[in-house]
Write a structure and sequence with these properties.
- By secondary structure, this protein is of the alpha+beta class.
- The protein folds into two domains: 19-167 and 227-316, Bira Bifunctional Protein, Domain 2 (BirA Bifunctional Protein, domain 2, 2-Layer Sandwich); 328-419, 3-Layer(aba) Sandwich (Rossmann fold).
- It has 15 helices and 16 strands.
- The protein has helices at residues 19-35, 49-56, 61-66, 85-94, 137-154, 169-185, 192-200, 214-218, 229-244, 289-292, 307-316, 335-351, 366-376, 386-391, 409-419; strands at residues 39-40, 46-48, 68-71, 77-80, 102-111, 123-132, 160-165, 250-251, 265-270, 279-285, 300-306, 328-332, 357-359, 380-384, 393-398, 404-408.
- The two termini are 50 Å apart.
- It binds adenosine-5'-triphosphate and magnesium ion (MG).
- Adenosine-5'-triphosphate (ATP) binds next to β6, β10, β11 and α11.
């Protein structure tokens, strides 16, 4: 026998028993975003490799070792998007969206060649949210308050906000020098990754997940002590607004984010319910990126939520949303009844577009069909046999009570709609 072909490692199917949860979560996210005036933008999954090199930065984990990059048939280097911000900025520049303020979101798969483990996959899904043309801390605050509302709407509890400011580019450069001297003075304590990053991207050492680096990183000079006056005021205003709005946070001076393009505000929502992969949502300001990609300077801020981690956390919190069972399961025995059942089902769907109705297909005895009806979790079983067809009636069994009644076809729609929900 030939072996079946399996999916690519780290790229998972989302099976029908899980998709209702995804749909319910996505619906809540979209509803909340709509309530703030955010609009959806749909972006290609493949972009030119150069876009990610220029935006994310050459010396980041993503660009160094995680991208799915390939040559197109005509020799162009293309990459499966590892994140959405770069493509969103690219689209906004290309279509003149930076001429006005924008509140945008997108949702879809991202690709990174990482070691697959719980909460870390090679194809995963993000909700990305970006706001363009807002330079003040009020937008930082609105965006973070929005994320807090997302958690509230989903019933999430075990999630905490960490905040930091990376300051202006000049402040970061001054800090970079200090950090390099600090790590150079403690050179023997650096792991291989950190030694490599020391001169290329020393801030990323702070983000190291190696527990052996913890103590050294905790004692490192803090970026927040190097902030320029403008960034300090921006950050303080943001903190005060969050306090006034009742959004609790912790300032984490080592929060630098994995991507190069951030400046000023950065934040992460983390949980200790998911083991090592505890960051569910991450974002920040990236005012410099648009210029870096060749556009006119523009303010930009955004965040991304890892949907696999979000859903895992909802599961861990025991608050996965209710998923809808069918309202009714229609069984039919006999040729005339089978044909009639399909017609009746169509007429019910015309009358009640929200009704979730399953018509039994595939024949079988009443007994075997009732078993299916039971297993479907439907609230009612609707029963059609030769006798019912002759009398133009239908049997209705309320599954919770076992109660049975018979109604004329003409009254079925009204019965289902008054008892529906
Ligand atoms: P991490 O430090 O966990 O690798 P990151 O800094 O690389 O995260 P971002 O690029 O900021 O992650 O992406 C935003 C969010 O997307 C993360 O907080 C996480 O929830 C999710 N995410 C990132 N990479 C993966 C992955 N490989 N599998 C599943 N979710 C991911
Ligand atoms: Mg990563």
């Amino acid at each position: 026998m030939t072996e079946i072909i399996r999916s690519v490692r780290g790229m998972n199917d989302i099976l029908p028993q899980m998709t209702p949860y995804w749909q319910a979560v996505e619906a809540t996210l979209k509803r909340v975003l709509g309530s703030y005036g955010y609009q959806e933008i749909r972006l290609p999954i493949v972009e030119k490799t150069e876009l990610f090199k220029r935006s994310i930065g050459e010396v980041t984990d993503i660009v160094e070792k995680e991208m799915y990059t390939f040559d197109d048939r005509n020799g162009d280097s293309l990459t499966l998007r590892p994140e959405g911000t770069a493509g969103c900025v690219r689209a906004a520049m290309e279509h003149g969206l930076f001429n006005q303020q924008q509140r945008l979101w997108y949702m879809g798969p991202m690709f990174r060649h990482e070691r697959p483990q719980k909460g870390r996959y090679r194809q995963f899904h993000q909700l990305g949210v970006e706001a363009y043309g807002f330079s003040g801390p009020d937008m930082d605050a609105e965006m973070i308050i929005l994320t807090a509302r997302l958690w509230k709407s989903l019933g999430l509890k075990d999630i905490h906000l960490q905040l930091n400011s990376l300051g202006s580019i000049e402040a970061r450069l001054a800090y970079r020098e200090r950090l390099i001297s600090y790590y150079q003075a403690n050179h023997q304590q650096l792991d291989d990754d950190s030694q490599r990053r020391l001169l290329t991207n020393p801030l990323r050492i702070l983000d190291s997940k190696n527990p052996d680096m913890q103590a050294l990183n905790e004692a490192a000079p803090k970026l927040i002590d190097f902030l320029d006056a403008e960034s300090a005021i921006h950050f303080e205003t943001l903190c005060n607004t969050l306090r006034a709005a009742g959004v609790a946070f912790e300032i984490n001076p080592r929060l630098v984010r994995g991507l190069d393009y951030y400046g000023q505000t950065v934040f992460e929502w983390v949980t200790d319910q998911l083991g090592a992969q505890g960051t569910v949502c991450a974002g920040g300001r990236y005012d410099g990126l648009v210029e870096q990609l060749g556009g006119k300077s523009a303010s930009a801020i955004g965040f991304a939520i890892g949907l696999e981690r979000l859903i895992a956390l909802l599961e861990a919190n025991g608050v996965l949303p209710d998923t809808p069972a069918p309202d009714a399961y229609l069984v039919a025995v006999g040729d005339a009844a089978v044909t009639q059942s399909l017609l009746l089902a169509e007429s019910l769907r015309d009358q009640l577009p929200e009704l979730r109705l399953i018509s039994h297909c595939g024949g079988g005895s009443f007994k075997s069909q009732f078993k299916r009806a039971d297993r479907s979790g439907a609230r009612w079983t609707l029963i059609l046999g030769d006798e019912e067809v002759a009398q133009q009636t239908i049997g209705i069994k309320t599954m919770a009570t076992g109660e049975q009644q018979t109604l004329p076809w003409s009254e079925l729609g009204a019965f289902l709609s008054t008892n529906h929900r």
